[in-house]
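Cross-posting from the modeling subforum.

Setting up a comparison between two proteins and wanted a second pair of eyes on the formatting. Protein 1 (sequence, then structure tokens):
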Amino acid sequence: MYEVSFAALRNSGWDWSDQRARVRSANVRLAEAPVNGFGAAVRVNASAWLASWSETVEKLATSAELIEQQLQDAADEYGTADAAAEERFEQWLWGTP
């Protein structure tokens, strides 16, 4: 038999939220990274690398946000189902329709 821990789902969701925020923060730093002072060729390559890496980091943040939302939604659904099952059990236990 499996048991779902609503607290574990919520906490995991918050952990993913924290990771998303950290990754988005890193993305801001990438966007603000200076390339001044380099020669033209290096500046172009550095800018291209920063743009490419920023795109990758943003995809990671979006994925983390999706996982966070799915964990929170799962916790909500399990909570709703658990409350309904408990209510049905109580009604059965006490013989009320």
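Protein 2 (same layout):
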Amino acid sequence: MVSKSFLISFEYQLDRGAITIQLCAEVEIHCNPTYYAVRDIRSPHHGSCPAIPEVRIIKKASGWVHCDSQKSTELTRSIGVALDAFGRRQDPDERACRMDI
């Protein structure tokens, strides 16, 4: 079940920060368990073709990680920074996820 969908923009650093790429993506919050499907990851100024395949991430005490591997990467950290900032600005409503048992 999708409880909310929104757009984010974020900076993705390559080569230990030597290269920074501005990206944007569509995010869907899914429930049971709660995770974030991040898709259509692309450059905001160059076409509509995704540059990176969809990723599914969750927030753990240790930070943002991939759902499948439970590992943090530069991509999950970059997306997580944008999601945390979005949450502070918009406060996405996740109550539906907690109530849908």
